[in-house]
Amino acid sequence: MNRRGTADSASGQAYQQHGLSVQTPSIVKSSSPKGMSVHSEYCLEATGANKSFFLGRRRVIALDDFSARVKKGMVTGLIGPDGAGKTTFMRMAVGLLIPDKGRIICLGMDTSRDSLEVQAAIGYMPQRFGLYEDLTVQENLDLYADLQGVPNEVRPGRYRELMRMTGLGPFTRRLAGRLSGGMKQKLGLACTLIKPPALLILDEPTVGVDPLSRRELWHIVYRQVEEEGMSVLLSTSYLDEAERCQDVILIHEGRFLGQDEPHVFSKALEGHSFILTPSRGDKRRLQEVLSERHEVIDALILGEKVRLVTRDAMEPQEVKRCFQVGVDFDVQVVEPRFEDAFISLLKRKKEGEGEAELHHAITPSMVRGSRDEEVIAVKDLKRKFGNFYAVKGIDFTVKRGEIFGLLGANGAGKSTTFRMLCGLLPASSGELRVAGHNLRRARAKARAKIGYMAQRFSLYGGLTVYQNLRFFSSAYGLRGKRQRQRIGWALESFDLSGLKDARSGTLPLGYKQRLALAVALMHEPEILFLDEPTSGVDPLARREFWRHINALAEANVTVMVTTHFMEEAEYCDRMVIMAQGEILAAGTPEEMKARFRSPENPDPTMEDAFIALIEMHGQEAESA
Q1: Residue 289: exposed, middle, or buried by beta-carbon count in 10 A (0-12, 13-18, 19+)?
Q2: Can you give the pLDDT at residue 185?
């Protein structure tokens, strides 16, 4: 593992050790902070910044001679993979961490010398914003207005504006803990903006929220820029969001990689990006063999197609000639995306430093059974909490070896459905069969055939990698030689052998994800449930993860996944999209997108289809 791999994890631990809490927002803000230069075109400047931490006796470098500038009055994206140093830099920018070397100037002030003044002048929303879940929406607003010194006479007008922007007006009396994920994020942003700051710093503000909520958050951010003249620095692991930024700073292993407008990076890959349509629908095999080729930078499944990015520019006929891989396909040239350029940059850098390519797909044992067999069957499924129906009589089936998506907006009922399918929550009524067992009568028998990977990775942070594997394999009933074989398989298959004595709580997010998947597969389940498995994980780790999932599907393992990342939904063979406890649509990714094809949008994305379905449902509910 790279010595910088646990940079942000380490900074979080050191941050806590210094008596600071990442959930504490900036206290007050002012529009004209002391010492701010009105003539500078930059609101934030880092020069030769270095930061390192110790995890036990091991020194971890979080930032390595990092220099960058953030321009005033625009949205700048801080883009980098897991453990790149994004969170460390943001904490240093707000004066919560001090650089070991170098200098950071924020709004004309030195963050090491004038940290309190800096914190009084900016707005900072960390990844886990400190909402008080036992307080209502209004009480949270009042609390942060008190902390930020907002005069009583200006509060009502500001509250009205923020509630209108966020759509939280009807929910001011609701407890924050009862809000959906997207609503919590919007409330966190509203609390940060009660007194408009000159500079707004947002650390992964859209992780774990649905596409519609993400879009709404972006509208709020750009409104602040356009109407308040605010400057924004925003980190994100969604590379499509990087294209919404006006400027991007690329960071990797604590080092500056480049800075420019997103389209400048994309333009460099013209002639490298293609859509391949396999003639026999063999998308998974085509993607896997392409991913092994040196000439390939990236290969992604998009519905029934594969998106290819080549190392060198090619003509379509060259692609056909070069990649004779046993699967016939048609080729179409497409415009490069920022994501293509970012992945290319990371891979070339790793190769230049002598690092190995991404890990090969795992080799699971084949699950017996016909692909036509229904291994999950749901009929008129309902779940009631008091007088509220979270799930309102839904129906669907999943066949063996399918990757099936359960999608929906925050609060749609998909998590409740997921928990019922895993046997973690009893149904109020309806029929529910999993792996041939009725979950209302034989829950334990069904669970023995199920693997479950929770959104927050249910690992024991105080245990080592090996100890986690041993504990969970024992919980699944593995003993002796069989247990040793499966632990050995997990360590080798997921490249964890060198980390087997590392505490899982100190691992970077990508390695935690590997370990969580390994744990879920210890007993070789027939069905694998994945709850937001790549939330917040960097794009390279996300690609590696889906190669593993595709290999499982090829081995006849049935996979059910919830995700808010719409390109991830493209890996599904079929899916359902839910809202307010009901199924709005069911079908393949291609069928979903085809519903919203139009002359204005001849090639809609899954995100286009998702948002259109949710908005249509909302309009129908309003008119009913």
Answers
A1: middle
A2: 87
62 contact partners, CB below 8 Å, separation of at least 6: 4, 7, 8, 10, 11, 51, 52, 53, 85, 88, 254
Which amino acid, residue 547? Answer: R
Handedness of CA 289, 291, 296, 298 (dihedral sign): positive
What is the predicted pLDDT for the residue at 16?
35
- Of 206-215, 296-305, 314-323, the range with the lowest mean pLDDT is 206-215
Supply the pLDDT for residue 7.
Answer: 41
In 3D space, the residue among 236, 266, 240 whose CA is nearest the CA of residue 251 turns out to be 236
pLDDT above 50 for 549: yes
Integer Cα distance of 538 and 5 in angstroms: 12
Question: Which residue pairs from 475-481 have beta carbons closer than 8 angstroms and sit at least 24 positions apart in sequence?
Answer: 476/522, 476/523, 477/448, 477/523, 478/522, 478/523
Beta strand 429-434 with 437-438 is antiparallel
Q: How far apart are CA 488 and CA 478, in angstroms?
A: 13
Asked whether residue 298 carries a pLDDT value surpassing 80, the answer given is yes
The model carries a pTM of 0.83
Residue whose C-alpha is closest to residue 616's, from 185, 300, 43, 212: 212
Give the per-residue pLDDT at 31.
Answer: 38
Residue 357 confidence (pLDDT): 56
The pLDDT of residue 297: 94
Stretch 130-158: mean pLDDT, rounded? 92
Q: Are 199 and 107 in contact (CB under 8 A)?
A: yes
Rounded-to-integer distance, Cα 339 and Cα 132, Å: 36
On whether the CB atoms of residues 84 and 66 are closer than 8 A, the answer is no
Q: Give the pLDDT confidence score for residue 34 in this predicted structure.
A: 42
- The residues, any chain, with a CB within 8 Å of residue 65's CB and separated by 6 or more, are 48, 49, 50, 102, 255
C-alpha–C-alpha distance, residues 309 and 334, integer Å: 10
* Count of helices and strands (H, E) across the chain: 21, 24
Residue 14 clears pLDDT 60, i.e. is over it: no
Q: Over the range 115-146, which residues count as b (16 or more CB within 10 Å of their CB) and which as e?
A: bebbbbbbbbbbbebebeeeebbeebbbebbe
What mean pLDDT is predicted for residues 472-491?
94
For residue 55, the model assigns a pLDDT of: 67
Domains of the chain: 7-129+195-257 (3.40.50.300), 265-352 (3.30.70.100), 364-449+526-624 (3.40.50.300), 459-524 (no CATH)
DSSP 564-620: S-HHHHTT-SEEEEEETTEEEEEE-HHHHHHTT--SS-SS--HHHHHHHHHHHHHHH
Please state, in angstroms and rounded to a whole number, the distance separating the CA atoms of residues 256 and 102: 14
Question: With pLDDT > 70 as the criterion, what percentage of the chain qualifies?
Answer: 91
Q: How far is Cα 508 from Cα 101, in angstroms, rounded to an integer?
A: 24
CA–CA distance, 546 with 524 (Å, rounded to integer): 18
Please provide the distance, in angstroms rounded to a whole number, between the alpha carbons at the two ends of the chain. 56
Listing DSSP states for 106-148 in one string gives: ETTEETTTSHHHHHHHEEEE-SS----TTSBHHHHHHHHHHHT
Is the pLDDT confidence value at 8 over 50?
no
